[in-house]
């Protein structure tokens, strides 16, 4: 095991030990199913269904992610743990939709068929780029779940509020693991890691884009929770850089190089966050909105 692999393995063991000690939760015992608000709005249910839809691509996420890092023990075992935790998210949201009476089993079965008719592919193709993609995606998802936790509370749905609380805790824990690995990568190769970070920022989009049924109309409702481009900068982009110890100047230099490559035709297609705007940067350009 190389020095780099050993460091990443130790980061995983730290993550796993804390998860076992502090963060595990039970779908059947820890969710207050008797406090579901069956009178909550359809908009609340639609957002929960959208989260559930994104989570249902788990087989694609796991197959792509774990095969990419299979020779790195710590990261591969993290992917296995991540899959377990994410599977609880989708199952819990499905149970909420059924127990709230907002969806029937037939409707959810039809949704599953629509979901599995399309396949999610890795947006990046190196372990380092996908590690940073995971960091950004998990932080963005954490922010979104926190916003929707507030929305559920406002509609007096204690059941859904609790579900979002548990999921948000998992998402930020996943983000912290990715950040710990990125810190190790920055120590090993700062210039190369910064370049990959800038590339991912410039080409980032959430995993539901283009594959979740009726995605565009769903996002119109999701945005009502107040997750927009300014929130992305304030709650996702800047906190990530601060946590990683990356300063304004070095990120701008790396971003400009990444944007030059993008303008030169390297991008797969002309989309960024949600396919709506350019790469986030500290000069003011930012994604217009976030998705679930």
List the main descriptive attributes of the protein structure presented here.
disordered C terminus; 292 residues; mainly alpha
Provide structural commentary.
The protein has 292 residues and is an all-alpha fold. The protein has eleven helices and no strands. The chain has helices at 3-23, 42-55, 58-68, 73-99, 105-116, 127-154, 158-188, 190-203, 215-222, 229-244, 248-266. Helix 6 (127-154) crosses helix 8 (190-203). It starts with a helix and ends in a 26-residue tail after the last helix.
Task: Briefly summarize what is shown.
This protein has 292 residues and is mostly helical. The chain is 69% helix and 0% strand.
Shape: globular
Name the poorly predicted regions: 267-292
Q: Note the beta-strand portion.
A: under 5%
- Cα distance spanning the termini: 37 Å
Q: What's the Cα radius of gyration?
A: 19 Å
Helix and strand composition category: mainly alpha
Q: Helix fraction?
A: 55-70%
Report the mean per-residue pLDDT as an integer: 87
Largest sheet: none
Q: How large is the count of helical segments?
A: 11
Q: Could you give the count of β-strands?
A: 0
Helix and strand element order: HHHHHHHHHHH
């Amino acid at each position: 095991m190389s020095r780099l692999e050993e460091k990443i393995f130790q980061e995983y063991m730290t993550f796993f030990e804390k998860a076992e000690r502090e963060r595990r939760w039970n779908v059947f015992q820890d969710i207050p199913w008797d406090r579901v608000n069956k009178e909550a709005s359809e908009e609340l249910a639609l957002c929960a269904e959208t989260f559930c839809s994104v989570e249902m691509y788990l087989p694609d996420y796991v197959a792509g992610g774990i095969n990419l890092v299979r020779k790195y023990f710590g990261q591969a075992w993290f992917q296995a743990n991540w899959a377990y935790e994410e599977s609880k998210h989708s199952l819990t949201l499905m149970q909420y939709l059924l127990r709230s009476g907002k969806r029937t089993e037939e409707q959810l079965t039809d949704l599953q068929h629509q979901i599995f008719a399309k396949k999610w592919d890795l947006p990046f193709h190196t372990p380092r780029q996908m590690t940073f993609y995971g960091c950004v995606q998990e932080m963005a998802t954490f922010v979104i779940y926190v916003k929707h936790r507030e929305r559920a509370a406002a509609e007096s749905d204690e059941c859904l509020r609790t579900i979002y609380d548990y999921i948000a805790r998992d998402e930020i824990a996943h983000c912290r693991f990715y950040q710990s690995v990125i810190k190790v990568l920055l120590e090993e190769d700062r210039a190369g890691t910064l370049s990959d970070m800038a590339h991912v920022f410039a080409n980032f989009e959430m995993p539901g884009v283009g594959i979740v049924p009726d995605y565009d109309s769903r996002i119109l409702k999701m945005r009502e929770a107040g997750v927009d481009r300014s929130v992305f900068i304030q709650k996702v982009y800047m906190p990530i850089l601060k946590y990683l110890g990356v300063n304004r100047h070095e990120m701008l230099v790396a971003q400009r190089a990444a944007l030059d490559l993008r303008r030169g035709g390297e991008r797969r297609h002309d989309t960024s966050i949600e396919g709506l705007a350019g790469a986030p940067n500290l000069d003011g350009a930012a994604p217009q909105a976030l998705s679930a």
